[in-house]
């Protein structure tokens, strides 16, 4: 059914951008809570939810994290460090950690889309020093930080980088038979 809701969602999906320039304007705790809540409502393999989210809003902490994160730009007002709880992930057996990484990715997208719906920009960041962040945030051995999301009100919304078109990416019934729809 192509109702109004679908249109709103596709607009958010297409409109969200990786934002790397932020205004000096704090994000309310209420909004941060909404973003975090969107994260825990992501699907997860066997509903194991082997994720831990570390919210960082303290300016000094953010500065310290920036020093050990080459992929983290400008002055985000909040960071969420998404981690895999390896003890929990073990419940998923041999594929547990792999699945947990997928789960985290889905939680991250939920958070970024919810943020976008509130006018808040975000950027996923994998380029950071794990050992250093572990020490800075007191992360125990069985918890693995895998992704940082930065948040803030954008100075501007960047232009959308090009997407590979459907007809190139989608294969119908078998690999190589491209989508012409
Ligand atoms: C798993 C992942 C890791 C990323 N790591 C970084 C990063 O370390 N630094 C950064 O500035 N952007 C990072 N990005 C953002 C991408 O560069 C960006 O999403 C991509 O260019 C598409 O742009 P868009 O998000 O505006 O559509 C990452 C994105 C993903 C999904």
Structural description of this entry:
- The chain has 7 helices and 4 strands.
- It is an alpha+beta fold and 181 residues long.
- The chain binds flavin mononucleotide.
- Flavin mononucleotide is lined by residues 17-18, 20, 71, 73, 123-127, 160-161.
- Flavin mononucleotide binds at residues 17-18, 20, 71, 73, 123-127, 160-161.
Task: Label this structure with key terms.
globular; 181 residues; four-stranded antiparallel sheet; 39% helix; binds flavin mononucleotide; alpha+beta
The SSE order reads HHEHEHHEHEH
Could you tell me how far the N terminus lies from the C terminus, measured between alpha carbons in angstroms?
19 Å
How many domains would you count in the coordinates? 1
Topology, number of strands: 4
Number of helices: 7
Question: What form results from the Cα inertia axes?
Answer: globular
Strand order of the largest sheet: 1-2-4-3
SS-based class: alpha+beta
In the CATH hierarchy, what is the class?
A: Alpha Beta
Largest sheet: 4 strands, antiparallel
Mean pLDDT: 95
The radius of gyration over CA amounts to 18 Å
What would CATH call the architecture? 3-Layer(aba) Sandwich
CATH topology: the name is: NADH Oxidase
Residue fraction in strands: 15-25%
User: Helical residue percent?
Assistant: 25-40%
């Amino acid at each position: 059914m192509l109702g109004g809701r679908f249109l709103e969602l596709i607009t958010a999906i297409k409109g969200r951008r990786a934002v790397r320039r932020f205004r000096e304007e704090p994000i309310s705790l209420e909004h941060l809570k909404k973003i975090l809540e969107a994260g825990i409502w992501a699907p997860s393999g066997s509903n194991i939810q082997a994720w831990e989210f570390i919210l960082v809003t303290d300016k000094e902490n953010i500065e310290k994290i920036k020093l050990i994160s080459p992929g983290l730009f400008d002055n985000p007002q909040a960071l969420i460090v998404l981690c895999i709880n390896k003890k929990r992930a073990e419940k998923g057996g041999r594929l547990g950690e792999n699945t947990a990484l997928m789960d985290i990715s889905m939680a991250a997208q939920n958070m970024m889309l919810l943020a976008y719906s509130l006018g808040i920009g975000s950027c996923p960041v994998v380029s950071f020093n794990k050992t250093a962040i572990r020490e800075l945030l007191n992360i125990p051995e069985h918890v693995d930080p895998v992704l940082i999301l930065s948040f803030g009100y954008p100075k501007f919304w960047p232009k959308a980088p090009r997407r590979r078109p459907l007809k190139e990416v989608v294969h119908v019934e078998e690999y190589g038979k491209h989508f012409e729809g």
